[in-house]
Amino acid sequence: MTLFHKALAVVASAALIACGSAPVSLSGRILDQKGSAVQKAEVFTEPETDVVMTNNRGFFTLKQRLDESGVSQQIPAGVYKIKVRKFGFEDAAFEVTIEGGPTKVPDITLAPRTPDINETAPDTTQEKEFDNDTTSTPVLGN
């Protein structure tokens, strides 16, 4: 590839990003009131995207969703309600508008909550169940 072609590829990539054609994603960080990372907090959205857990540094990224047939696809631009929950903390929820490309939300701070003595940890979010389609044929991957 010549230097001209490499430069052209960089300009084309920049144009795609500027036009909002870059893959849509939503990322952020979950902290406690002391500023420490909250690990394994559950992050999900309305409308539905993947449900993810924060990593050991409190970060999360949402990039995809499953359609009605269980096929993975990019999340579209739009308004999303982000919900965060972790046992021992108050649930958090807020709205964010994603216009296209990567969107980073400001750090989210969870308030501590003392669980009731009879309370148990919540069940993880239930994923959508799909009926088995006995007429379909499995497709081999790449």
What do these coordinates show?
This protein has a domain at 22-110: Sandwich (Immunoglobulin-like). Helix content is 11%, strand content 32%. The chain has one helix and ten strands. The strands form three sheets. Strands 1, 4, 9 and 10 form a four-stranded mixed beta sheet that branches. A four-stranded antiparallel beta sheet has the order 3-2-7-8, with no helix packed on it. The chain has a two-stranded antiparallel ribbon with strand order 5-6. Mean pLDDT is 78; it is low at 1-20.
Strand and helix layout:
Layout: H1 3-18, E1 25-32, E2 42-46, E3 52-53, E4 59-62, E5 64-66, E6 72-74, E7 78-85, E8 92-98, E9 102-104, E10 108-110
Parallel strand pairs: 1-9, 1-10
Antiparallel strand pairs: 1-4, 2-3, 2-7, 5-6, 7-8
Distance between the termini: 27 Å
| Helix-and-strand structural type | mainly beta
Main β sheet profile = 4 strands, mixed
Q: For the CA atoms, what is the radius of gyration? A: 19 Å
Strand tally? 10
**What is the CATH homology-level superfamily of the domain at 22-110?**
Immunoglobulins
Bin the strand percentage: 25-35%
Helix content: 10-25%
Instruction: List the secondary-structure elements in sequence, H or E.
Output: HEEEEEEEEEE
* CATH-defined fold name of the domain at 22-110: Immunoglobulin-like
Give average pLDDT, whole number: 78
Number of helices in the DSSP assignment: 1
Keywords:
about 30% strand, mainly beta, single chain, about 140 residues, disordered N terminus, globular, 4-stranded antiparallel beta sheet, Immunoglobulin-like, 4-stranded mixed beta sheet
